[in-house]
Structure formats: structure tokens, C-alpha cells
Amino acid sequence: MHPSISINTLCLPPAPLGDLAERVARIGARGISPDLDQITAFGVSESGRAIRDAGLAVATLTHRAFGYATPADTEAARERLLRSIAIAGKLGAASIIMTTGGRGALTWPQAAEAFAEAMAPCAEAARAAGIRLGIEPTSHLYSDVSIAHRLTDAATLARKAGISVMIDLFACWFDADIDTAIADAAPLTALVQVSDYVYGDRGLPCRAVPGDGAAPLDRLIPAIARAGFTGWFDLEIIGPRLQAEGEDAGLRRAGDFIGKLLETA
């Protein structure tokens, strides 16, 4: 498998972190992207040991949503993210991925300013620790936990907050300005999440193995590489299609597909 490919543990059935690390290594990836809750449940030191023993690097740590809509939200969100930064440092994680948090009663411009202000001390702490904080674009169906629904929006917010962008191609491949958005976001990008979409799938999660669907990954992944991105391409394939094929087989097939695109980019 191409050395730039990592596997998000969301692809796999729930299991102790140690078992997940062993499985990711058997599949052939060099990196793993665990969820914060999986790390804390297994133990931070134990997780780090299991990941190292499996020969893996931590591509990113999934933090989920930030918060800023009210002062109480901001205080709690900062405390939680600062704890995640400390954990990421102990694991040697390259980055932390999250959504912005919902806007509550704020307008989008108000929410953008509030997000940047709330994020400031965490962004400073992450820089000091050598960890990149990144926000990802998300479907509008998750507007309770995000205000970034296009890649351009995510890049705008990241610049304002002094943090990074995580390009989730499942959430933005259809953006009208995707090609220019990729070029614009490239200097800010810390990680790329990859999956596909099959026309007609309606119920989330409905992600497909890359190459099986309509997303023009054969154009977008080389474009991201040519724009200068040299980090992790994280497989985040969630839903019944992967389960029906079998996670190991589907993830290996996904890795082969993306690896060929990267080799010829």
C-alpha cells in the first residue's frame, strides 16, 4: 500500500484500540486515524504503545466538534481541545481533525468571528506542540456541528483562525469551485480524507470504496498532489457498501486505487 495512505478507525467495527491498530497494520496501511474516545477508553499510554508496536504512525486524531455559540460552549470546547492537544502530543499525532461546532442563533459571519476568537488559545497551544489543528467541510445535514459546508468555507475559516484544513472529498467533490478551492486550500491542508459516492444513495452513511462511484477522484487526487500536498490520504469509508464487501478487502482495494493515482500524479 502507498506509504501516504492511512486508515480511519471509523471504517472498522468497534473494537479495542489495540485490536484496531493490529488490523490496520495487517491491511497494509502505514498510518491510523483513531477517535479520541477510543484512545481514552483504551488508555493514552497503552494506545501509544499499541500503535507503535503495530508499526503505525498516527495520521490524525478525531476530536469531533468544537464549540463557540455561547460563552459556556467556548469554555468547555477550549478545555476539551486543549486536552486533545496534550493527548495528540503523547501519541505523536501529526494533526487533529474536527468540525467547527454549530452556530446556534448566530449569522454565518458572526459565527466565523466567534469561532476564530474561541479557537485562538488552542491554535497557539497546537503550534507550540507541533500539531496541526484542522477543520473539515461537512454536509449541511450536520449543521448542528459545523458551519463549513464547502471547501472554500473551511479554508476561509481556517485562515481566520490560524489553523489548517482537512479536505474531506466526500463532502466537497461536487462544489462548483472545487478545482480552484483545492489550489487555494493546498497551503493550509493537513490531511485529505477519501471515499466515494454512488448516485442514488440517500441514507447516511453512504460512502463507497474509491473508484466505485461518481466522485472524480482520478482528477481531484492528482490535483491535490500537484498543488503541493505531501501528507496523509486517509481512508474514511463508512457504511453498508464496505461492510458488504468486507472491510479488509475493500480497504486494500481503496488503497491500491489511490496509490496508483498518487504514483502517476
Describe it for me?
This protein is of the alpha/beta class. It has one domain (5-263): TIM Barrel, CATH 3.20.20. Helices cover 48% and strands 14% of the residues. The chain has 11 helices and 9 strands. The protein has helices spanning 17-27, 36-42, 44-53, 71-91, 108-129, 151-161, 169-172, 178-185, 217-226, 240-245, 247-263; strands spanning 5-8, 31-33, 57-58, 61-65, 95-99, 132-135, 164-168, 189-194, 232-235. A 9-stranded parallel beta sheet has the order 3-2-1-9-8-7-6-5-4. β4 (61-65), α4 and β5 form a beta-alpha-beta unit. It is globular and about 45 Å long. It starts with a strand and ends with a helix. The model has no long low-confidence stretch (mean pLDDT 97).
Q: What CATH architecture label applies?
A: Alpha-Beta Barrel
The ordered string of helix (H) and strand (E) elements is EHEHHEEHEHEHEHHEHEHH
Q: How confident overall, as mean pLDDT? A: 97
What is the percentage of strand-forming residues?
5-15%
Rg over CA atoms: 17 Å
Distance between the termini: 16 Å
What is the general shape? globular
- Work out the helix count: 11
Q: Approximately how much helix is present in the residues?
A: 40-55%
Low-confidence parts lasting 5 or more residues at pLDDT below 50?
Answer: none
Assigned CATH class: Alpha Beta
Number of domains: 1
Largest sheet: 9 strands, parallel
Q: Walk across the major sheet and give the strand order.
A: 3-2-1-9-8-7-6-5-4
Which class of secondary structure composition applies to the elements?
Answer: alpha/beta
By CATH, the superfamily comes out as Divalent-metal-dependent TIM barrel enzymes
Number of DSSP E strands: 9
The CATH topology is given as TIM Barrel
